[in-house]
Design goal:
Strand order of the largest sheet: 2-1-3-10-4-11
CATH topology of the largest domain: D-Maltodextrin-Binding Protein, domain 2
Structural class: alpha/beta
Order of helices and strands: HEHEHEHEEHEHEHEHEEHHEH
Number of domains: 3
CATH architecture of the largest domain: 3-Layer(aba) Sandwich
Number of strands: 11
Length: about 325
Amino acid sequence: MLSLCIRVRSSAGRGTLAAVVLAAAAITAGFPLSAQEYPARPVRILVGFAPGGGIDIVARAIAPRLTTALGQPVVVENRPGAGSNIAAEIAARSGPDGYTLLLGSIASLAINPSLYAKLPFDPVRDFAPITQAGTMNNIIVVHPVLPAKTLKEFVALAKSRPGQISYAHPGVGSSAHLAGELLRKAAGIDIVPIPYKGGGQAIVDSLAGHVPVFFASVPVVIPHVRNGKLKAIAVTTGLRAAALPEVPTVAEGGYPGYEVNNWYGLVAPAGTPRPIIDRLNRDASAVLKTPDVVKFLGDHGHEAVASTPEQFGAHIRSENAKWAKVLKDTGIKAR
């Protein structure tokens, strides 16, 4: 609360005093009022990957329901590139007013600070957490042209063809990219990463057989695994995917301790008023708990998760520390 102490010496000054008092009242009331009136115009959710990818699927599932909850259009805007750093930088530099949000992934919010030598934003300093939105499994799929039906067969094939087998991933710094690099080191194989600007673009080349291996999120490939156009050989998470329970984990395939999880959540620019953060948390959490959203995401390989801003902030900090150590120990850098 802003307080003013003004001494009035004449009646002529009383008008000035009244004006100052009114101005002070406007200043002190301004922030709560703006939060109460939020939103007064459309809200955009930035996604750091191209349309059709796992994160994009989530954004487009929740945006219509957030539109209803907020009473203003919620628009998904894809800004792919630079390992999702382009979207994150735009969000970090946007006004702290709740009208530009980022559906950030493990890449932009936890991995990239240690993967890149220099970033134009700091995920801990430059963002205000709203809520975690969910998790999803990563998976290794191969085109039928590749003579490998299991992880063991794939590793043996890669060892017999060093530097000749390439793998697609949805972007430098994505958890799928890290999953590929960690398997490369764990198995001692020389496979070549081919980065894309999202899973939607990578799946086209994978289905055509141009890139025979794809480290992807389950939502992007699940229909193609089910119809037999791609073969799933392992998931990278610690547990099997509920949507594809028949596919073993990498750890089960002979690499105990191997585990790469994927998560994502909503953040706003740092300095966004807490009442706006609370409003967004309340409405987004309610959307994520809606039965049809839970089912839709589950059918596509996601698990909907809602949290408090504090819980999500703690998770982001913890994951930053975890991946800093992993990347330092393995020597993995953007390439």
